Amino acid sequence: MHSLTDILDSCRIRPDKKFRWKDFDPTWAGEKRIPKAKRRATAEKLLSDEVQDLAAAQELLYAANRWSVLVILQALDTAGKDGTIKHVMSGVNPQGCQVYSFKVPTSEELSHNYLWRCMKVLPERGHIGIFNRSYYEEVLVVKVHPQLLKNERIPHAKAGAKLWQQRYEEINQFEQHLSRNGTRIVKFFLNISKREQRKRLMARIDDPTKHWKFSAGDLVERANWDDYQAAYAEAISATSTEAAPWYVIPANHKWVARALVATILAKTIDDLKLEYPTVSPEMKQQIKASKKQLEAEPK
After folding, report:
1. pTM
2. Higher pLDDT, 271 or 19
3. Contacts of 98-104 spanning 24+ positions with Cβ under 8 A
4. How does pLDDT run across 1-52, given as a tens digit for each residue?
5. How far apart are CA 202 and CA 198, in angstroms?
6. What does the pLDDT read at residue 218?
7. How confident is the model at residue 264 (pLDDT cuts 50, 70, 90)?
8. Rounded distance, CA 78 to CA 57, Å?
9. What pLDDT, in 10s, does the model give residues 47-103?
10. Count of C-beta atoms within a 10 Å radius of residue 52
11. In terms of Cα–Cα distance, which of 148, 146, 143 is closest to 229?
């Protein structure tokens, strides 16, 4: 039986290891020798525990006020990004966490470099920032649909291997800069199978309460499945670094994905070795005097 550490390590993309989709099974849900109901109960208990640990870790992150944490979530449609954010961050104080969902770039955003719209909402020290999609769209969606590059009006820019390599390098340099200046970055790709995506799209169509989630564009993008798989494989391989690692999370079972993301995120913050700020001798005297003053008040 694999330990939890082994499982987490198996999700992490090492910079020196070749990334191959066949090594990452989106249907993985623990040891098959153990009944599925028991595995699910274990995962849900782990999620509950990690949600509590995250709440404590976020409070310490906020109090220490030295590091910020940037969480990047990428996935194909229906993989469960919104649900992962909802469940994993359910115990975190909203004052110390911001979520940004990046849609089709606006005219203002297209008038700046492709990193700009993400740069201006980076988490401040003591905070967790979550990007639901991110600047990685520029080497994913734009790579699959190169005609979109024209909207960016970049002088002499031409879609091709040279441009994508330049962007991988720019992203790595940007993330290295953030890491050196106190932002810990952790990146998740929620990995679902094409068959599971079909099942979830059908569920949206068949359930009137989920029609608001459905978009005909989802089927347009589904037709480009192989192109997206190739784009993700190359981008993840090129940009998983020690400073900003990628984790490929099996996401066919939502209870597996949420437990793993919560565990990795809690561990990421714990690895910062944060401590509550020390109190000066003068402050200790003020606290002592304040206690006496309060105790002297009538009850």
Report:
1. 0.94
2. 271
3. 98/123, 98/127, 98/128, 98/129, 98/130, 99/129, 99/130, 99/132, 100/129, 100/130, 100/131, 100/132, 101/132, 101/133, 102/131, 102/132, 102/133, 102/134, 102/137, 103/133
4. 578 899 999 999 999 888 899 999 999 999 989 999 999 999 999 999 999 9
5. 6
6. 85
7. very high
8. 29
9. 999 999 999 999 999 999 999 999 999 999 999 999 999 999 999 999 999 999 999
10. 13
11. 143
